[in-house]
Amino acid sequence: MPNAQLPIINYQSPIKNPKSKIEMVNAIGKPLNRVDGSLKVTGGAQYSAEFPQENLAYAVGIPSTIARGKIKSIDTNAAESLPGVISVITHENTPKLQPLKTFMQGGTAAENYLPFKDNSVYYSGEYIGLVIADSLEQATYAASLVQFTYEEDTPIVDMLLHRNQEYEPQTVFGKKPNFVRGNPQEAFEQADIKVDEVYTTPTENHNPIEPSATIAVWENDILTVYTSTQNTYGTRKALADSLEISEENIRVVCQFMGGAFGCKGAFWSHMLLPAIASRQVNRPVKLVLTREDMYNVVGHRAETEQNVKLGATKEGQLTAIIHDGISHTSMYDEFAEPFTVATHMMYACDNLQASQRLIRLNRVTPTFMRAPGEAPGIFAIESAMDELAYALKIDPIQLRLINHADTDPDKNLPWSSKSLKECYQIGAEKFGWSKRNPEIGSMRDGRYLIGVGMASATYPAFTSPASAKAKMLSDGSVVVQSSTHEMGGGTATVMAQLIADTLGFPFQKVRFEYGDTKLPRAPVSGGSMTISSVGSAVHGAVKGLQAKILELGGITDSDSLTIEDYTNILKKNNQQQIEIEYDAKSSQEKEYSKHAFGAQFVEVRIDPDLGEIRINRYTGAFACGKILNHKTARSQFMGGIIMGIGMALMEETVVDPNLGRVMNANLGEYHIPVNADIPDIGIEMVEEIDNHVNPIGTKGIGEIGITGVAAAVANAVYHATGKRIRNLPITPDKVM
User: Fold this and answer.
1) What is residue 544's DSSP assignment?
2) Could you give the CA distance from residue 435 to residue 54 in angstroms, rounded to a whole number?
3) Is the pLDDT of residue 235 over 60?
4) Stretch 160-165: mean pLDDT
């Protein structure tokens, strides 16, 4: 059945606000308020768990209590005898499912492991059963009564204790796991000045406000799924492949997400379970993960151990970069955190080696987390650059300028644009870097130690194919549709600005609809590419719509046209609406390397008696192409920086070394920054004109903010105390 015949959502458009007084044409770049703000604060925005269904049943997952072994027996009698319990699903009664391809294999799944595949247990907290009942309370209690007996094996949990089991992965995000340019080993041995240190980053979890949730509804052979996903079409594809039904018979809806940071970017097996359950019990089924589940059955940022070697001349010119290390993956799949990816291109150096290896653990498969690879990798390389600066007695900014890559040393291509030097300059000026006393421990505020540090930031400017449909109605309003999402970044607002400016229409006359596979295809909302990819499709669709209307009216020049002129053309041609769909391709300009760049500056205050570290001041300067909305952009940069501060000072997923259980699977013990931890953050946006990245000249801003933050903080701590902390997070005990 085609999508057109599927049920239609009654859109409460987040764009159209009758109380809005906004009336402007030149909307691009303006710090406009979020168009969906009122919906969110009044409860009008529907998240995946909030779509009402008649006769809804509730599902609760049963987690394994061991980290490795086999299920010997299952007793469901006590659970099934309870009032309100409809069904218990385990590997003994799960329907046959087809395996899925992961992102790394060209698919859309986070891992290729299917739920309840057999009696094997691979990690603690793994779903090994599912209870469906009339209420959440009944399902929760029943789940506690299902009895499993195990044949238990000793789990492999501690990565650093199992270095002897490391192996070379097939690929590291498309790059070879072992890359060599020039002769780095020889160059390092012959270098005047050397840095050779090991840096570690722990496992981290995403902790979005909204836990993952899925509602599945079957109507005959048609499946509708409301689920928190960053990839509606990818989720539809995975469901179709695993259930062996046509994609056209599946509709996936996700308009709003309460954060994601990567954990909702790929298809997880828990998203499949409600579809299986709903078909089995012939009722809509809802599964909402608990906070603890979000630490277990959804992936995390992998732990890393990185050895960085830098060789340089006495003048500070890099002669060798060697970046080598390990991270972990699961027992059944392969995900390599690409922590060397930025090292390839960050600095000019003829001799470079980047190599990565993996260790299999009894953990769920790691996944994308804000700036995957760059966040932990830049911590290591930028900490090492700071160590080199002190060894050379050169200002850290000057050292980076000496080694500035005027072209991409990895691809041997010119940059589409690069304003990193401007970021250094503007960021340093706004922060007051020149007032820094370079001597260790020289700066104080009363009894408190003061330290300042900086680091570089970067993230690729990705694009992916995307489509959009643009419609002009007889009243002069314009509706543009795409299946992308609003997960807090301001997508809906920015798209409306783009539509308005492209047409020269007032902002309040346009509407952007999204979050549904009955709308044109959009790529995964990840890799900081949504605005660039979907925005290019929106821009192309609106331009095409405009051209179609002008052709209909026999007009060649649109500059002086009013809304009334457009509506008159429609009326004269007896058209209630005109629409056009546009497919935007990925940027085809392969002769340029495309990256966003930035510079991070931080001042810390440390209590010498307690080891408490406070962020006093923070300035981030970023060059990310054309900025479409300065308010939402500032929020994105700030969000990344705050997450980076959490990475630097607090965040660590603690796993019991014997049992393999996450010991702090809650927001009480997994510490993230709160308002009291964060000062006023200065954001400087260095706008660029870049005609090569995409038609609208944008680069992603969602992830670059976190890159370099942890290094800047660690470098500031060293400046304050003389203690070089190479193991995140930087906790009070490490600086005492």
Assistant:
1) H
2) 65
3) yes
4) 95
Q: What domain range is 94 assigned to?
A: 50-153+206-296
Residue 177 lies in a domain: no
Cα–Cα distance, 685 to 687 (Å, whole number): 6
Backbone dihedral angles phi then psi of residue 170, each to the nearest 5 degrees: -65, -40
Helix, strand, or coil (residue 629): strand
N residues, the chain: 736
Percent of the chain with pLDDT over 70: 96
Quick: pLDDT tens for 654-687: 999 999 999 999 999 999 999 999 999 999 999 8
Dump the DSSP string for 130-163: EEEESSHHHHHHHHHH-EEEEEE------SGGGG
* Least confident window among 258-267, 274-283, 337-346, 561-570: 561-570
Backbone angles phi, psi at 322, to 5 degrees: -125, 120
Spatial distance between the Cα atoms of 450 and 471, rounded to a whole number of angstroms = 57
Asked if residue 86 has pLDDT above 50, the reply is yes
14-24 b/e (C-beta count within 10 Å ≥ 16 → b): bbbbeeeeeee
* CB-neighbour burial class of residue 210 (10 A; exposed 0-12, middle 13-18, buried 19+): buried
In 3-state terms, the chain is what percent helix, strand and coil (to 5)? 30, 25, 45
136 phi, psi to nearest 5 deg: -65, -40
β-strand pairing of 613-623 with 681-685: parallel
Count Cβ atoms below 10 Å from residue 10 Cβ, excluding itself: 5
Is there a catalytic annotation at residue 703?
A: yes
Amino acid at 608: P
CA distances from 343 to 188, 329, 408, 411 (A): 16, 22, 11, 12
Instruction: Write out pLDDT tens, residues 5-38.
Output: 433 333 333 333 333 333 445 778 888 889 899 9
User: Does 216 share its domain with 112?
Assistant: yes
Instruction: Tell me, yes or no, whether 170 lies in a domain.
Output: no
Q: Which of 191-200, 503-512, 602-611 is the least confident region? A: 503-512
Query: What mean pLDDT is reported for the chain?
Result: 94
Averaged over 274-297, what is the pLDDT?
97
For 489, the 3-state DSSP assignment is: coil
Whether pLDDT at 463 is above 60: yes
Residues 382 and 517 in one domain: no
Looking at the structure, tell me whether residues 552 and 423 fall in a common domain.
Answer: no
Catalytic residue among 111, 303, 374, 703: 703
Same domain, 440 and 569: no
Number of domains in the chain: 3
In the structure, what pLDDT confidence band is assigned to residue 113 with cuts at 50, 70 and 90?
A: confident
β-strands 147-152, 178-181 pairing: unpaired
Asked if residue 515 lies in contact with residue 482, where contact means CB atoms within 8 angstroms, the answer is no
* Residue 253 belongs to domain with CATH number: 3.30.365.10
Average the pLDDT over 605-612 and give the result. 96
Whether residue 265 sits in one domain with residue 116: yes
10 Å CB burial of residue 108 (0-12, 13-18, 19+) is: buried
